[in-house]
Structure formats: structure tokens, C-alpha cells
What does this fold into?
Amino acid sequence: MYRLLFDQVLSRLDPERAHHLAMVVIRAIPRLGLRRAVAAFTRPTRDISVHALGLRFPTPFGVAAGFDKNATAVLGLGALGFGHVEIGTVTAHPQPGNPRPRLFRLIADRAVVNRMGFNNDGAARVLPRVERLRMERARSGMRGPVIGVNIGKSRIVSVDDALEDYLSSTRLLAPVADYLVVNVSSPNTPGLRGLQELDRLRPLLEAVQAEAAPTPVLVKIAPELQDEQVRHIAELVAQLGLAGVVATNTTLSREGLSSTPELVAAAGEGGLSGPPLAARSLEVLRLLRGALPAGACIISVGGVSTAQDVRERLEAGATLVQGYTAFLYLGPLWARAINRGLSRRPPRPARAATPGTGSA
It folds into this structure.
């Protein structure tokens, strides 16, 4: 049914407009009192929960940052079967992002190119929404979703002044986040990826970690990093005692695409997500798992579409797995399919994940 809807209707809409329409429907789930009924339909059929970051994740599969930038659809996404929702990227200053159009489909590759540019309402406006979400989660007694907050650099702030900008967001959002992610890897904010250089990254992560405590802090890295750079960042994470790494962000590469060169050129600049990113994302996961302490959390993201994809990441050492792009192609029952697939054949135990016991 969704495939027909996508082929006949949604694929003909501007991708950003289609996303906004989907968000209207997702937000309506709790507003119409349908949260419990939908959750009963989408939840795993057996306990596949994961304990990580001092938290219980009802399923290891969650929504990557970028889908719900402003924390407006967390409860609906949780009802659809996602065990955690990473909101953002949120910046200290509100910003509209890059000019439209800025989101493009490459349908032959089931991929997306985006140059959104951290469009979001800003940390001060997002804060009360997350506070309300946490209160509603506690009031309802429903498990999950875990709420991660992804923070980035405001565009109006220079890279040299980035540390204080990140700290402004940290002071507001760390106290209400279940975990905090420092995004230094988006390709759509000028100069941002330079913060992955160790001489800039160390003081940034040290300062954010000190300000965020006791909230767990992770860092999100780019797929373009060389293998040795990945290992060096892993060493830094271990030295600082950070909670872990989110790997990876979108890629600037356009290699190996099935879409026509004309269509790829028309999409223009921006980060590519979806299946073309899967191989490198898996490589980076394996590098990190080999370099990080066994207890460090790795959230693997990039090119995940099926339960088998998620299982492969977990068996390769991921603690948790995130997706985004396949939602656009597979629709609202995507997380249910992942959960049911993992329930039928759970992943083999890996060092990075502790099987749930069913306890809260």
C-alpha cells in the first residue's frame, strides 16, 4: 500500500514538503489518543531491549538526527516502534537553514541528498518541548522512546568561537537529554568538519563533557575520515571517558550510484544518505569497535534498510542502530518490520550490547 502511495503521489511531491506532511501524521498519533494502540501493533514480539548509557532501550533501532529536528514528533515516532529518537541537530541560535530546494531523492539508489543546513528553532525553544516529553513519558508509564539530543554549531558563529556556542546549547539541553551528541561532521555547515581535527576536538569534547555531566556525551563523526583518523578519535574518546561515538554522518561521495549523472548533478551539493553509505558506515563501525573499550557505546547509522542490516551492525559491535532515509521509501511501518525481524531472529551477542532482561 505505502509503495503504491509513494510511487503515485509522494515521489511527485517536493521531498521536504512530503516530509512535513508525514510529520503532521506522526504528531497526530498521540494527539488522537492512538499512542498505545499503535505501539501495541509495532512493538517487538519478544524482548530485544538493550541496556546502554545507563538506560533501557526497548529496541536497539532508533531514528537518526535530522528527522525530528525540533522535538515535535518524538512520541509518535516512539509509537511507530523506534526505541529512541535523536532530535536535532539543534543549535544555540535559531536558524532557517539553507535556501530551498535543499532535499533531493535519488530513487534508483533509494538515497537522499540534503543540504538542509541545521534548520531548527534553537536550543531555547526546543528545551521546553523536551521537558514536556520527559514528563509525558513518565506520566504515561510507557517505556521509551529514549530521547537523544544532537547539538551543532550555529552558522553565524565562527569555527574559532564554536566551543562557547556548543556550551550554550549544552547548558540548556543536557539536563533534559537522555544522552547528548556533539555533531562535528555535517557537510552542510561551513568549516564544521574541521572540528574533527584532534587539536580542536579535544578541548571541545572536554568542555562539553564537563558541562553536560552526568548526561552521557557522544561525538558524531564523518564517513570521509581516514581509517587512522577514526582510530585517533576512538583513542581520544577513550582517554576522555566519553560515552561513545555515533558513526556516521552523511557522505560527500557520489561514487557507485545507479542514478543518472544528470540527476546526481541536478541534486547538487550536500550530504548523501541511504544504501550507498552502508559499506563505509559498516567499515567505520568495525574500526571503532576494535579501537574502543568494550563498554563504549557505538551508535551505527548509515544505509540501514532491513532487519538484516540492523542485525549485521549489532553483530559487528554496534550498541544501537539508527535509520532515517529508508523511512522515506518504506513508510511508517518500517520500524515495525525491523522489530519483528529482530524478534524472529535476534542478533548474536556482541561486546557492545547487553541483552535486555525485560526490566525497566
Residues 351-360 have pLDDT under 50 and may be disordered. The CA atoms of residues 250 and 273 lie 5 Å apart. The two ends are 36 Å apart (CA to CA).
